[in-house]
Design goal:
The chain is of the alpha/beta class. It has 12 helices and 12 strands. The structure holds manganese (II) ion.
Length: 323
């Protein structure tokens, strides 16, 4: 089903009373903040809602936790009755992990709110806009459509979503609308200094330790236009890091002047999870798509069912073909 209009989404929400909200596994700024902001909006229009995700909020973003983020482990979700689900920031339904089973068992009406160009339009209602810098932009649109004023938490959540998905308003997905939304948040009293410190100037020591290993593994191919690194489960273990600690690593590779395509391969048991970044005209969404993944033109990911070294070989082959 193609994307629906804002009005159709508003109607779909108005017509229904209770919602399970979910977001992707390994949650980051946009999906966490979008889910929490949407939960807040639904409460304010007197709907019942319940956030349920496979993973907990990572430590760096604990400050967003308002006690409304439930995980499959922490919560007896099955006691909660709901007829509808809203999935945010997920290009495909598999991205919510095991919560997919919960939704499918209940045969709920499904609303898909997202901005990934690779979105599969898996919902009964699909509010998908690949021109939006972050899913948080679409949640902001919903606040406007329902004429619900943004409380302090909502201001903060929308900002976190926009700021994190645009690399602090640096990436090409940043639009005039992104800045207009931020201007509106500021007019409503958002304070950004402390927030930016929490988001960007709070690097734990363990992450620096992992970054050292990552730099030692850095390799260049194709005359330095491709940069990649491999990290293994044991590297994360040795430094006490989790997947979220990898945030920013692959972007660092892309920031190297000569580099057009960068990727980070992270061992995931017997499989490999890959994050791609690019600049210029190279489309990593297309590249990730060859391996069953996707995302955006300049930032995408996939899982390859092969060990890390083999995965790297397979990727390099495809990058050379696409270049
Ligand atoms: Mn996003």
């Amino acid at each position: 089903m193609p994307s629906n209009s804002l009005q159709q989404v508003v109607r779909a929400i108005e017509d229904r009373d209770n919602f399970l909200l979910s977001a992707h596994i390994s949650p980051e700024g946009d999906c966490i903040a979008s889910a929490l902001a949407l939960d807040s909006l639904l409460g304010k229009i007197r709907k019942k809602s319940f956030v349920l995700c496979e993973d907990k909020i990572p430590e760096q973003l604990y400050f967003l936790d308002n006690g409304r983020w439930n995980t499959l482990k922490s919560n007896p979700s099955l006691l909660y009755s709901f007829d509808n689900s809203i999935v945010v920031d997920c290009p495909a339904l598999d991205r919510i992990g095991k919560v997919k089973d919960v939704i499918e068992t209940r045969k709920t009406f499904l609303i898909n709110i997202d901005h990934h160009i690779s979105n599969k339009n898996f919902g009964d209602i699909n509010f998908v806009d690949s021109g939006a810098a972050a899913t948080g932009e679409l949640i902001y649109d919903l606040f406007q459509a329902f004429r619900v004023p943004l409380a302090d938490d909502d201001l903060r959540n929308i900002y976190v979503s926009l700021s994190t998905d645009t690399g602090s308003f640096r990436y090409s997905n940043t639009t005039a609308k992104t800045h207009e939304i931020v201007a509106d948040l500021l007019r409503h009293g958002l304070k950004t200094d402390k927030l930016n410190e929490q988001l960007y100037d709070s690097v734990p020591r363990r992450k620096v330790d992992l970054f050292r290993i990552f730099l030692a593994r850095l390799e260049f191919d194709e005359n330095g236009s491709i940069a990649s690194a491999i990290l293994r489960d044991e590297d994360l273990k040795a430094t006490g890091c989790a997947k979220i600690d990898l945030e920013g690593f692959v972007e660092y590779l892309r920031s190297i002047i000569e580099v057009q395509v960068s990727f980070l391969i992270c061992q995931q048991g017997v499989d490999s999870r890959i994050s791609f970044r690019s600049k210029g005209s190279f489309d990593v969404n297309k590249l990730a798509g060859l391996f069953g993944g996707g995302g955006h033109a300049k930032a995408a990911g996939c899982t390859i069912h092969a060990p890390v070294e083999k995965a790297k070989k397979l990727i390099l082959e495809q990058v050379r073909k696409l270049k």
